[in-house]
Amino acid sequence: MPMSSMVEQSTLAVSDRIWSSVRVSKSDDGTTTVQRYDWDSNSLLQYRRFRRLLAERKRAKDFPQTPLKGCFEDLPGEIRNKIYEKVMVQEPAYIELSPKTNRVYVANTKSRYHHMKRLKRDIGPALRLMRVNKKIGGEAASVYYGSNEFRFTSVKGWYVLDTFLREIGPGNVARLRHIAAHVPWQGEVNDCPKDTLPESNAQIDHIQELISTMGMHPRKFRKSFCLSACIGRTARILEAVGALQSFRLILPDTFSIFFPLKMGVPINVAMFPRGVEITLVSLQGSFKLPPGHADQINYDAHALRLLQHQREDGVVDFARERGLKIVCMAYDNMGYYPSTDPEDCIFEDWNSS
């Protein structure tokens, strides 16, 4: 049989050690398109010991499918938003970046790793949507930053929040709608020496290193990274945008406030044209020691005394005078709140007082 007829019958054309698959198609307007996919001898070399694989690749028609006339961006905005919400917002619908647990003599390291692992494993892959293109990235970012609550619950939370706002940039700060942070008042941490306010040089070095391990870049100079500087800078950034809808101040039951209070609400409500809801959250969770520890009852009683101390020293009156909503919640050993485990709750309802 002549070589020319062999070429016509085969799906492969042979020329100078190149295997070429050819597909000819015509569009609606009559334009002819020729698509070729080439296998050279080197690329097929690795399959020479596997006859079936080699034959499949020699005769492969590896052509791109006929492109669809529509794409994801052509879907209605309502449908795209539902897809974004399904992917970018996972229950529980918050991102905890500075957790606080109800464990005594135990730092929050385990809890922090737990929440960072959740962010990296469960939520991180979805964030790739922000890098698809400018349009999809902007829409996905609006849902991610606007629908999730970003929490900075521990006493170190303001240092993390200040760094977080700088990391995400002004465009994404404008998309934030819900933030929760530790109360900005001076006080004493009673449950764990490692979680005391990091105002000493050694403690500030520690918190800077801690934030660096989270993949963020804290400010290097201590004067610009003290608690008052972080609170003031955060307030100015959020007020300049004025897009926040809710700001929750978290008061753990292990935090003893130094009275009188020298600072009120950290942000100026008048700077938010659409209004922002400020809520004081009293976190209540029985101090937990290792199982069978003899001092468990004493620590539970100590926690109740701290709660009573907070309430009697005017926290409730302070909130009510400023029109703040008061919410009491239980929290657990991993820093989740509200906790659904009744054993985590030693409840004293401040709203009934």
Describe the structure.
- This protein is of the alpha/beta class.
- Helices cover 37% and strands 17% of the residues.
- It is built from eleven helices and eleven strands.
- The protein has helices at 3-9, 41-45, 51-58, 77-88, 109-123, 134-147, 157-173, 201-213, 227-241, 296-312, 315-321, and strands at 12-15, 18-26, 32-40, 94-96, 149-152, 178-182, 187-189, 246-252, 255-257, 277-284, 325-330.
- The strands form three sheets. Strands 4-5-6-8-10-11 form a six-stranded parallel sheet. Strands 1-2-3 form a three-stranded antiparallel sheet. It has a two-stranded antiparallel sheet with strand order 7-9.
- A hairpin with a 2-residue loop joins strand 1 and strand 2.
- Helix 4 crosses helix 6 (134-147).
- The protein is elongated, with a radius of gyration of 30 Å.
- The N and C termini lie far apart (101 Å).
- This is F-box domain-containing protein.
- It comes from Polychaeton citri CBS 116435.
Secondary structure layout:
Elements: H1 3-9, E1 12-15, E2 18-26, E3 32-40, H2 41-45, H3 51-58, H4 77-88, E4 94-96, H5 109-123, H6 134-147, E5 149-152, H7 157-173, E6 178-182, E7 187-189, H8 201-213, H9 227-241, E8 246-252, E9 255-257, E10 277-284, H10 296-312, H11 315-321, E11 325-330
Parallel strand pairs: 4-5, 5-6, 6-8, 8-10, 10-11
Antiparallel strand pairs: 1-2, 2-3, 7-9
Helix pairs in contact: 4-6, 7-9
